[in-house]
Amino acid sequence: MASYKFLLLSLVLSSFNHLFCYSKLDEDRTLGYLDDISSYDMTAYPSYYGAVHGERGTIAYQPNRFVLERVARVARFGYSQKVVNVKDHGAKGDGTDDTEAFEEAWKEACSSSTSAVLVVPENKSYLLKPITFSGPCKSDVSLMIKGTIEASSDRSDWNGKNGRHWILFSGIQNLYVGGGGSINGNGKIWWQNSCKINKAPPCKDAPTAMTFYSCDKLTVENLNIKDSQQIHVSFDRSTNVEVSSLTITAPESSPNTDGIHVTNTKNIQITNCVIGTGDDCISIESGSQNLKATNIVCGPGHGISIGSLGDHGLEAQVSDVIVDTAQLKGTTNGARIKTWQTSAVEVSNVMYKNFKGTSASEVAINFDCSTTLPCHDIILQDIDLTGGDGNAATSSCNHVNWTKKGNVIPLPCAK
Ligand SMILES: *[C@@H]1O[C@H](CO)[C@@H](O)[C@H](O)[C@H]1NC(C)=O
Ligand SMILES: *[C@@H]1O[C@H](CO)[C@@H](O)[C@H](O)[C@H]1NC(C)=O
């Protein structure tokens, strides 16, 4: 079995010679906002700030496009809309199975000739078995979740169904999902039966709470998502995605409960999210391109990760990733790029800038790159990390060509 190779502390990954520029954020506004949605004391723990300044070239991410789309969405909540309420299709929200009512309500919303709002009423908790919301729809659909959607905790409800999904959105354009409500995966029974906890065979997949597959022009915002069976929210083969103001929580001990998982997805912005789970806060997998994550509060969990890439020697490509302003507290890692020790993946053009704080491990910076494809064009700028208990942090360094700007503590390796 190939051994894991990983880089600690990746902030920006760009491979294949892409260059990017960075637009400065309104820090007062965004930090103030984070204060509102989180109970964390933002001054009480180390902050990690990252940014990238490109000397030439542009980044494909265009803030204005998203702003325009948001305006268009606001316009959608006008008079010519069809409002579909799940309760009119028989959803009770009293602990009985509401899956069929949701399916019927989706059919009506998705086939509407004017844009439709599908409402999940407040102050009720609706129990759903695995469910698929499929497109294409005739018009734009907004799913306004005001109440709570809860997963069945009876695992046999997945018998004969795809065990990897609980709520699946598939092949939909111009979908909005929000509303301020909650999604509860009731994952406890799945965690207890995870291979990581219970070694007795057979090893079975657990569902992802919300999967967005093959969606284009998608907004997911303002939801509390908790205790997923496995990954909380997954974006797969989607394009032009805006994710904001999600609060994602699960116990630190819950296995494989990644917060936001991105794979084969292009043009995605993730902003103002507070994530604390048992695995990566954000994981970025193969085929993802042009991802920008801003104002992320992460912990507990495993940090922010790219990879693992290159599993089984397969070619894997992730490019134009920017993580800007992330606060990590109580995480086992900060930012990682994980690749398998194969010849398939090369790591290059990574900038780590403005990292400050205390490392969970004594080795705060760890470059452990491939013998055949060393890491190159790695820039470290203005890094100030200490080890635990006030000790100096150390670094470890194999097969990496790096350059330094400003002060870098600890230095990755002697030059
Ligand atoms: C939901 O609960 C809140 C708080 O109890 C209450 O103010 C509100 O009127 C309720 N909404 C509905 C639709 O019952
Ligand atoms: C690092 O760069 C130097 C000079 O460009 C080169 O000679 C050396 O082979 C490189 N080392 C690695 C590990 O890529």
TrEMBL record:
Broad class of the protein's primary localization: secreted
Swiss-Prot/TrEMBL keywords: Cell wall, Cell wall biogenesis/degradation, Glycosidase, Hydrolase, Secreted, Signal
Subcellular location, record wording: Secreted, Cell wall
UniProt keyword annotation of Signal present: yes
SUPFAM superfamilies noted in UniProt: Pectin lyase-like (SSF51126)
InterPro entries per the UniProt record, alphabetical: Glyco_hydro_28, PbH1, Pectin_lyas_fold, Pectin_lyase_fold/virulence
Secretion signal, residue range per the UniProt entry: 1-23
Molecular function terms from GO: polygalacturonase activity
Active site feature: 302
Biological processes annotated in GO: carbohydrate metabolic process; cell wall organization
Family, per entry: Belongs to the glycosyl hydrolase 28 family.
Protein name per UniProt: Polygalacturonase
Protein source organism: Cocos nucifera (Coconut palm)
